[in-house]
């Protein structure tokens, strides 16, 4: 390990499992002091123990619901109190309550919940991190977007929220510079419980659909997150890094029929 985060602190939101967990572990393994947050206290405590065991670092679990304003504020305040300051914010929480509902059947109430977690909470966490130290000491924010922001994956609500998140990323990068950098990472589907709920195709077929020959892992996405959070990316802000196994580079296809609504495409 390079030790890119020695004498640095980080709060990772949505770190109980998946990409958020992998990012928190990577930062801790490279010397960072890390606080993690998530809704389920048991899963969060287990994640903290596993990260500590892998890195030798002390990891602070702070249970909190990202949709609730008072819990977001409490989480950031407790993180700053525990860590001393806040240098890095990784927002990896995500919701797909609307699932693969067709556009004509989208429920506005569920859509609002998806936007609340995927966009609004990311904005509010960044504002809190800025207020509680980044405004004076600088920092780096990395948001977890998705390839779904750029291509039709038949998850219309999820795609809308991730497109909005990337627009928010650029706006915050503009207005918080030069003290705070804001970037995002856009992975294709990776091997997590989140993507497992929307994938019906056999594993070998999913792997074969990627130019790189396999579906991604949380660790491969976390590598991009930690790069953007580190000083190695000190002249990068307002951008989105694709971590998609070449999926976005694939040619437009004319040799397969247009899938009908309800046909498995993942």
UniProtKB/TrEMBL annotation:
Name the PROSITE patterns on file. ADH_SHORT (PS00061)
> What InterPro entries does this protein map onto?
NAD(P)-bd_dom_sf, Sc_DH/Rdtase_CS, SDR_fam
Q: Where is this region: Disordered?
A: 246-266
Skewed-composition ranges (Basic and acidic residues)? 252-266
Q: Which GO terms describe its molecular function?
A: oxidoreductase activity
Which keywords does this Swiss-Prot/TrEMBL entry list?
Answer: Oxidoreductase
* Matching Gene3D superfamilies: NAD(P)-binding Rossmann-like Domain
Q: What family does this belong to? A: Belongs to the short-chain dehydrogenases/reductases (SDR) family.
The molecule here is called NAD(P)-dependent dehydrogenase (Short-subunit alcohol dehydrogenase family)
């Amino acid at each position: 390990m390079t030790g890119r985060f020695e004498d640095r602190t980080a709060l990772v939101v949505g770190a109980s499992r998946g990409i958020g967990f992998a990012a928190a572990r990577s930062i801790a393994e490279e010397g960072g002091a890390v606080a993690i947050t998530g809704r389920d206290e048991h899963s969060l405590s287990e994640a903290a123990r596993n990260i500590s065991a892998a890195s030798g670092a002390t990891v602070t679990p702070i249970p909190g619901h990202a949709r609730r304003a008072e819990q977001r504020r409490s989480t950031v305040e407790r993180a700053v109190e525990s860590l001393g300051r806040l240098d890095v914010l990784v927002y990896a929480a995500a919701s797909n309550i609307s699932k693969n509902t067709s556009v004509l059947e989208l429920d506005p109430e569920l859509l609002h919940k998806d936007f609340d977690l995927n966009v609004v909470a990311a904005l509010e966490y960044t504002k809190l991190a800025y207020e509680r130290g980044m405004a004076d000491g600088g920092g780096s924010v990395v948001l977890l977007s998705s390839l779904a922001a750029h291509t039709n994956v038949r998850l219309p609500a999820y795609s809308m929220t991730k497109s909005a998140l990337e627009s928010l990323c650029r706006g915050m990068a503009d207005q918080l510079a030069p003290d705070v950098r804001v970037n995002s990472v856009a992975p294709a589907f990776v091997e997590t419980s989140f993507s497992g709920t929307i994938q019906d195709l056999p594993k070998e077929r999913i792997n074969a659909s990627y130019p790189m020959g396999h579906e991604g892992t949380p660790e491969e996405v976390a590598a991009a997150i930690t790069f953007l959070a580190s000083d190695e990316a000190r002249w990068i802000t307002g951008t989105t890094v694709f971590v998609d196994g070449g999926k976005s580079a694939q040619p437009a296809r004319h040799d397969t029929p247009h899938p009908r609504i309800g046909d498995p495409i993942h």
